[in-house]
Design brief:
heterodimer, A: 606 residues, Helicase, Ruva Protein, domain 3, 6-stranded mixed β-sheet, 26 helices, B: 342 residues, alpha/beta, Rossmann fold, 5-stranded parallel β-sheet, two-stranded antiparallel sheet
């Protein structure tokens, strides 16, 4: 596996690319090495994002990772639907009632202090849960303010995030991914390759005490920073992780100074999977002069007397090694200039994950009465009633009605709140073809942004599909983030033929996905209805039109609420017919501005 | 408690550091919102600030009441004491910097029945929450855009009134709660509710530095800190102390700083040009320009001060114009350039 060239078959299909390793490094060996390095410096590396479907290969990696942990290392598995109380800690109801005083219950994160947390189905983790995890990461402690308890407890751990995502739409939340040094993909490792592990717990135990003594020079840090820049990795955490990993590897190899080999490992394991661009052929001009000595407190670097290698030469060497480890599919995409796609993959999919299972996920507990479908949370109700029992019984006794039964009052009622219960996703399918495209697109952009602007209140998401030329593409997967929307809208192209059927198909697929996840999709099709490109990309008005109407009927059969906005200067029968077949509301809007559009959409979406 | 990374060792991000200092000098600016890229030292700077805030005088009561405050801003206990004795005894205490962690429950935020006392003694007593602890200090919310809606609601009300009114579990308590709200987050993970955004006086956008020397320095310092936090903090102690003295001096100078009519007029022009809603924008610009002047040791607020802080004070107050491709930051910058020239 010496020249991992582009692999168009993989890159085109949007399927995750197989992990390629540098010369002489199999993906499996690197995955095992990551487990070792993570175990040597759990806090400094944060942990591993393990992209793999469940199966023998993943099990094998996990069991090797577990075996590497020194005795007594706490290991905790966090399920997807973990409640805040269990994650962070809270009031232990049974013990509290027993003891007659508040008894705190430790959370999973505190229990995992000094050890490893395994995150099950991490690609679907709720953003809130991820945020709590990140806070513990950043501060090294769990700050608890719950159930009348206030505690700070140290909690430093490494995370193994089990990402079972398929395709580029599913993956870890950016914020979490950014905090894990290693991003591994095991989907393309065959079981018979997944056997060897050349390390054991003794290696870890020997390396740990060496780690604090390992030194890394300014030139070496510069090299890692430069490579990160050249590969288009914005986050500084990547560079910090790379230097930690280089040190951990040096410690593993019984060295006290970081060598080129350690840098190469760091580049391969930490930087390569994060690449969003290919390094420019020429080194960037600002990389040439040696960096100015930091003026702040002087670091005594003089002790490393070894002849420093030419920074440029060193960098090229490591960069080549790193480049070789960039997944082939990504490399191919980069070469084809599909930067937008690859960036989305490289940085995860915050929006898509927020969109994860919407129905029936409890999202906290509120005071309130169980009515109109609200569900009473018995445990929480008991918990809030518990402290009062003594007072209430005494009151009762004073009133001359002593009794021993549990006193529950209206004030105690707690109901479980469900998030995204009726979350709707508005999917714009926009005709970006022909001469009026640019004008129409500006309106669509405006409407999307206006919708997003009040979607915090409405708890809605917005997605955007555009069709033009030969086909359709998702410009904006369902999201609630205005920032992301703006970014993808900025580069919206226009012109070409009208593949209406492809546009409707793609919009419908998105809508279907939303429905499957328990959300409510609304399809907004903005077109003049004059299709002239068929699904297979060939021209021909008649066939294109038939296909468009067929696609419209499919939308109706799925019972997706829809709105057709006729954007032609004079309303056309085609638009009306399309709406009819789709079972959609028809709205001729020849001179729509973003505001009018927004109002129309809101009326449809309810 | 983990050792915080020293404030003065945070590399670059000058706008963020300056804004935090200004909020420390004049709490009435209304806090700071720090939004931007991951891993740019947002939480690091805020946690570091806590370590170098100069102490304040406070009454020895639950709420750290200000001995100089009017009756409206004293707690029940202090009001009664003051009426009896005419004055209040006070002592030096550190300025509280309170974390409002995600996953906090409402009872801990606004305060609730004291469980311990209820369970052990059968007494009905109020246990103050985070809002009470943050009184006269800072309330820090990391990932503020992920904060639960019902917590945002209680927060908005308290931040507006400076009072926390608790009516629950048969308790009825009112106590002062005036704090500097500091929030941080990444806009890619969700938008901030507009009402909450408006509460923040200053908003800062942080970006990952892209120049090599800065990036190297960040990596270097972080590495050094991780290896030996205590030694690192010791090394930066003098620099942190310098910043601390700077805050102290500026706080003292603040009441003497004057705002000439010309500065007021230019500020008004700027706000009119940008069409900011209401007077809040103007007020924030003036207040923060004054704090900046104090920070720099100037006794007069000049247009230069206004120019320096205008973007932070106004960028989150502009009405959204979906068809304007440029962000609000460049809109403010453009207006400044057109009004004041280079």
């Amino acid at each position: 596996m010496s020249t991992p060239g582009p692999n168009p078959a993989v890159a085109d299909g949007g399927t995750p690319a197989p992990l390629q390793a540098g010369p002489g490094h199999s993906p499996w060996d690197d995955a095992v090495l990551a487990a070792v390095l993570m175990t040597i410096d759990p806090v400094g590396t944060g942990g591993v994002a393990l992209r793999a479907l469940p199966g023998p290969v993943r099990d094998q990696w996990l069991s090797i990772m577990r075996d590497l942990q020194p005795e007594g290392t706490p290991m905790r598995r966090i399920p997807l639907h973990v409640a805040d109380g269990r994650l962070l800690g809270g009031l232990d109801l049974a013990a509290t009632l027993n003891a007659g005083r508040p008894v705190a219950e430790k959370g999973l994160l505190v229990e995992a202090d000094g050890g490893v947390v395994e995150l099950a189905m991490a690609e679907r983790i709720a953003p809130g849960t991820a945020a709590r995890l990140n806070m513990a990461f950043d501060s090294g402690e769990v700050v608890l303010e719950r159930d009348g308890l206030a505690m700070r407890t140290p909690s430093r751990f490494a995370v193994v995030a089990l990402d079972e995502g398929v395709g580029e739409d599913e993956g870890l939340l950016n914020a979490l991914l950014d905090r894990l040094a290693f991003h591994l993909e095991l989907n393309y490792v065959r079981y018979d390759q997944a056997i060897a592990c050349n390390y054991d717990v003794e290696d870890v135990l020997a390396a740990r005490p060496r780690l604090p003594g390992v030194t890394i020079t300014d030139t070496q840090v510069e090299t890692l920073c430069n490579i990160a820049l050249a590969l288009g990795i914005p986050s500084l955490r990547a560079s910090i992780f790379a230097s930690r990993v280089a040190c951990a590897h040096a410690a593993l190899e019984e060295r006290t100074e970081v060598t080129d080999e350690d840098l190469a490992v760091a580049g391969r394991l930490v930087l390569a999977p994060r690449a969003t661009q290919l390094p420019p052929m020429e080194p960037p001009p600002d990389a040439e002069p040696p960096p100015p000595e930091p003026e702040e407190p002087n670091q005594d670097e003089e002790q490393s007397n070894q002849e420093p290698q030419e920074p440029q030469e060193l960098q090229d060497k490591i960069l080549d090694a790193t480049k070789a480890a960039i997944p082939a599919g990504l490399l191919a995409q980069l070469q084809m200039g599909k930067l937008r796609r690859s960036r989305a993959r490289a940085t995860g999919k915050a929006g898509a994950v927020q969109n994860a299972p919407s129905r029936g996920r409890p999202a906290g507990v509120l005071r309130g009465e169980p009515r109109a479908g609200q569900r009473l949370n018995v445990i929480e109700t008991l918990r809030s009633a518990a402290p009062w029992q003594r007072i209430r019984r005494e009151e009762r006794a004073r009133a001359g009605k002593p009794s021993n039964r549990l006193e529950i009052r209206q004030d105690d009622f707690r109901i479980t709140r469900f998030k995204h219960k009726s979350e709707s996703t508005t999917i714009f399918v926009v005709d970006a073809s022909g001469s009026s495209a640019l004008h129409r697109l500006a309106e669509a952009k405006g409407a999307v942004e206006l919708l997003l602007a009040d979607c915090y209140v409405r708890r809605d998401q917005v997605a955007l599909v555009a069709f033009r030329g030969q086909g359709a593409e998702v410009l904006l997967p369902p999201t609630r983030s205005l920032v992301r929307a703006k970014r993808s809208l900025a580069g919206l192209p226009g012109g070409g033929g009208t593949p209406l059927a492809s546009g409707i198909d793609l919009g419908m697929m998105l809508a279907d996905g939303v429905q499957r996840r328990g959300g409510t999709p609304v399809l907004i099709v903005m077109t003049d209805g004059r299709a002239n490109v068929a699904r297979d990309g060939t021209g021909g008005r008649t066939r294109a039109n038939e296909e468009a109407l067929a696609a419209a009927r499919a939308v109706r059969s799925l019972e997706i609420p829809a709105l057709v906005i006729d954007t032609s200067p004079r309303p056309q029968p085609q638009g009306r017919e399309l709406a009819k077949e789709m079972g959609a509301v028809y709205l001729p809007l020849p001179h729509a501005d973003a505001n009018a559009l927004n109002q129309a959409v809101r009326a449809t979406a309810g | 408690m983990p050792i915080p990374f020293p404030f003065s060792a945070v590399v670059a991000q000058e706008e963020m550091k300056r804004s935090l200092l200004m909020a420390a000098i004049d709490p009435s600016i209304g806090g700071v919102l720090v939004f931007g890229d991951r891993g740019t030292g947002k939480s690091t700077a805020i946690r570091g600030l806590a370590a170098l805030l100069p102490k304040m005088r406070a009454v020895d009561c639950t709420y750290n009441c200000d001995p100089e405050a009017g009756d409206d801003y004293l707690c029940q206990e202090c009001r009664t004491k003051k009426a009896e004795k005419g004055s209040l005894k006070s002592r030096q205490v550190p300025v509280p910097v309170v974390d409002l962690p995600l996953g906090a429950t409402e009872d801990r935020v606004i305060g609730a029945l004291d469980l311990e006392r209820a369970l052990t003694k059968g007494e009905k007593a109020f246990e103050p929450g985070l809002l009470a602890r943050a009184h006269r200090g800072f309330l820090y919310i990391d990932e503020v855009n992920l904060l639960e809606d019902h917590l945002v609601d209680s927060l908005l009300d308290v931040a507006a009134s400076g009072q926390n009114l608790v009516e629950r579990e048969g308790l009825s308590v009112r106590h002062p709660a005036r704090f500097v709200l500091v929030g941080s987050g990444n806009p890619e993970e969700g938008e901030l509710r507009p009402q909450l955004q408006d509460r923040f006086g200053l908003s800062v956008e942080v970006k990952t530095p892209t120049d090599l020397p800065t990036r190297m320095k960040v990596v270097r310092l972080r590495d050094e800190f991780e290896r030996d936090p205590e030694a690192f903090v010791e090394k930066w102690k003098a620099k942190d102390a310098k910043v601390s003295r700077q805050i102290q001096k500026a706080k003292k100078l603040l009441p003497e700083v004057e705002v000439p009519d010309r500065t007021l007029e230019e500020t008004a022009k700027l706000c009119i040009k940008l069409g900011t809603d209401g007077l809040r924008g103007e007020l924030t610009v003036i207040r923060s320009a004054r704090a900046l002047a104090a920070l720099q040791g100037d006794k007069t607020v000049t247009v230069d001060h206004v120019k320096t802080i205008a973007v932070s004070a106004l960028r989150h107050r502009l009405r959204r114009d979906p068809l304007d491709e440029s962000g609000s930051t460049s809109r403010v910058e453009r207006a400044i350039k057109e009004l004041f020239g280079e």
